[in-house]
Amino acid sequence: MSSIPMIRQTAGEGAARKAANRMNRSGGRGGGRPRNRGGAGAVRRPGPLTYGSLGAVMLASLFPLYWSFLVGSHDSTALSRGIPLLPGGNFLANAAKVFDSIPFWKAMGNSLVVSSVTAASVVVFSTLAGFAFAKLRFRGSKGLLVFVIATMAVPTQLGVVPLFIVMAKLGWTGSLWAVIIPGVVTAFGVFWMTQYLRDALPDELIEAVRMDGASMIQAFWYIGFPAARPAAAMLALFTFVATWTNFFWPFIVLDPSNPTLPVALQLLQAAHFVVYSVVLAGAVLATIPLLLLFIAAGRQLVSGIMQGAVKG
Amino acid sequence: MSVTDRVRPQGHLSDEEGPSSKSVRRLAFSQQLSRWDVKVSPYLYISPFFLLFALTGLFPLLYTGWVSLHNWNLIGGQGKFIGAENFGFVLGQPYFWNAVGNTLSIFLLSSVPQVVLALLIAAVLDANLRAKTFWRMGVLVPFVVAPVAVGLIFNNLFADQFGLVNELLALLGLDPVRWHSDQLASHLAIATMVNFRWVGYNALIFLAAMQAIPRDVFEAATIDGAGRARQFLSVTVPMLRPTVIFVAITSTIGGLQIFDEPRVFDQSGLGGANRQWQTLTMYIWELGWGQRNFGRASAVAWLLFLMIVLIALLNFLLTRRIASQGGRK
Predict the structure, then answer these.
(1) A260 phi and psi angles, rounded to 5 deg
(2) Which residue of A has its CA nearest to B143?
(3) Tens-level pLDDT at each residue, chain B (329 residues)
(4) Which ranges in chain A are annotated with CATH 1.10.3720.10?
(5) A302 lies within 8 A of chain B by CB
(6) For the whole model, what pTM was predicted?
(7) B133 neighbourhood in chain A, CB within 8 Å
């Protein structure tokens, strides 16, 4: 702890005042007047400017969704009569038109199936691999893990042409399997689970169950998987969101008659005459499921991103 | 277990030696099994990833090279080997170079502001806020909106006629911008969509890295008389170097393959009447599934692959340079 007089000697009067203020504030909340000094301070309370700019950012991130609902709840000519400020009463009518023009519910069901199956399999296979990388000793483990991480930088999306050829040969084009299979385990998932299990699972625990006669797979199932649960939940969440919003590959390999949501959504605009009130009502409808997920698990998404950043 | 059972009839003689030898042998076998379990299991557990990567990642990527050397039709399949002809054809197409330019332009317009904005937002979020989680979640909302939905919404916001952006410009007394016909304007609109979706996400990554910086570094800077802006530029940003590099690389790899947002920026999905915003991935789609020429589509895919590797490398060197210069000050 630095003493205030010493700061005054070495860094001048201003610095000393600042240091004194800071100490006051750390001592008690009422100590110093909270001033707008964001950034470094763990103790300073930020002022209106900080909240104001955050509010602006928040507005920018929510406004397009509000706009979508705004346009989607008016009739098709509303925009030409001037910008509406409040939602109209036409949302359900527009939604009905959405259901008429694209196989919306089928797409919703497909998206649910594809995203859930992908999320589940990514979690199982990634945890299994993560368990091996983090806790088991085997020749080449370090090099193989580096390889896994390196593949994250490979733009595999560019292999679409042969992937399509293979799927066509297998007769899988148009089938949901063509979308699910390429995503059943990801490099990110393996890396993520490896990082987590390394700290979360004590080696002694595995040794103990091994001594009791458990096989490797039993050790994984009874010790490894339960220990990985918090990270596995986050991985499932991220995989679900990523799969749900994925467009390029499903768009190429699926038929318009059996689409996922983004593929179906895009069909709304491909019609000869674009009716924005219907298109944007569709955009709102397609976003609602993930918004609900976000309300339920947004906190986990936030901490997942932040944990990944520190370890990554 | 079943193996030992099957051995028993042959080992009839040994049965008379007594139960002890049998259990010894069984023990030896189970030890063998356990040793095998220890040796093989790890490889078994990591194999799904490697198998899948080989089959759906590496193989298609390499096979793209093979397809690009052939006449290859979506319906007719593999044709004659024609060497580098597809590459020659593609490189002679104005649309190819147009797509290269568009891709780079959209990439620059999205990645640079994205990193800068994310850093600034992270710095604000790093303050000692009330209701921290609320603000962090608020910033992340766009992440759960599918790019296609983002594209449709912004397509309307940036509509040439009756679009909100143009109406606002009119309120300010400015001329409307032809977002769907001017090349640069369309790039700006598409870059806005990308930024909308990713700024908050990256801000949280930066925020996490900022919170890992020891606080006494800032205290030392304060004592040295560094203001807030100076601290941000000379302490925070250099300390975030690895994270900035990470975000820059991932946004390079993703950004150069951009497809969803420009695809839905108009009805046809080909990038405008004069291909003003056709990106390379869209061009691959047009060649492969529009014109059904897989050979040419593969040639473009390979060229884009090279481009991504080159730019990612360049990016890596550049960010390292910038960040380390900041650190030296």
Answers:
(1) -90, 175
(2) A241
(3) 333 443 344 434 444 444 556 666 777 787 888 888 888 899 999 999 999 999 988 999 999 999 999 999 888 888 889 988 999 999 999 999 999 999 999 999 998 999 999 999 999 998 888 888 999 999 999 999 999 999 999 999 999 888 899 999 999 999 999 999 999 999 999 999 999 999 999 999 999 998 888 888 888 888 888 888 888 888 888 888 888 888 888 888 888 999 999 999 988 889 988 999 999 999 999 999 999 999 999 999 999 999 998 888 887 787 777 656 554 43
(4) 73-311
(5) yes
(6) 0.85
(7) 299, 302
Say if residues B273 and B201 touch (Cβ distance below 8 Å): no
Chain B from 32 to 71: CB within 8 A of any A CB: 34, 37-39, 41-43, 45-46, 48-50, 52-53, 56-61, 63-64, 66-67
Q: How far is CA B103 from the centre of its chain?
A: 15
Can you name the CATH fold of A73-311?
A: MetI-like fold (1.10.3720)
